[in-house]
Amino acid sequence: MHISAKADYAARALVELACDTGRPLTCEAIASSQEIPFRFLKSVVGDLRRAGLVRSQRGCEGGYWLGRPAAEITLLDVVRAVDGELITLRGEPLAALAYPGPADALPDVWREVEERAGALLAATTVAALVHRSRRPAPRPVAEPV
């Protein structure tokens, strides 16, 4: 199974945003803190914004905020926002996959792998990752109205 760099960077950016809800964070700050290439992160954050997982604020005090509470954002949401399908085979979704002859049971195994991975990712929220972090998070500050 392959976890894309986009999914990894997106999850790391969301965890970073969840750790400091008192102010918007710039892509530069997230990229620096998480050691992510800035240009790549800009593209990833664009996907997250389009999916509603982050929101942006323009201006000198601008940057990015979580689009909804960290407890409501799952890793499955993140993967789907940046990659689309969870698992594909040669770029195709597994739903219609079928093989002839003695390999006819194999697509069921691939779909089960996808189902189990999806269940784990759906059960893991950004808030849970922040909670599990070994790095102390700053005290939460109320978001502006």
Describe the structure.
The structure is a single chain. The strands form two sheets. The protein has a two-stranded antiparallel sheet with strand order 1-2. Strands 3-4 form a two-stranded antiparallel sheet. A hairpin with a 2-residue loop joins strand 3 and strand 4 (92-93). Helix 1 packs across helix 4 (75-83) and helix 2 (27-34) crosses helix 3 (38-50). The model is unreliable at 139-145 (pLDDT under 50). It has helices at 5-19, 27-34, 38-50, 75-83, 106-122, 126-132; strands at 54-57, 63-66, 88-89, 92-93. It is elongated and about 60 Å long. The chain has a single domain (5-132), classed as Orthogonal Bundle (Arc Repressor Mutant, subunit A), CATH 1.10.10. It is mostly helical. The termini are far apart. It is built from six helices and four strands; from the N terminus they run H-H-H-E-E-H-E-E-H-H.
C-alpha end-to-end distance: 42 Å
Biggest pleated-sheet summary: 2 strands, antiparallel
Compressed to H and E, one letter per element, the order equals HHHEEHEEHH
Number of DSSP strand runs: 4
Report the CATH topology name: Arc Repressor Mutant, subunit A
How many helical elements?
A: 6
Task: Give a brief rundown of this model.
The protein is mainly alpha-helical and 145 residues long. 48% of the residues lie in helices and 8% in strands. It has 6 helices and 4 strands.
How are the secondary structure elements laid out?
Blueprint lengths: L4 H15 L7 H8 L3 H13 L3 E4 L5 E4 L8 H9 L4 E2 L2 E2 L12 H17 L3 H7 L13
Antiparallel strand pairs: 1-2, 3-4
Helix pairs in contact: 1-2, 1-3, 1-4, 1-6, 2-3
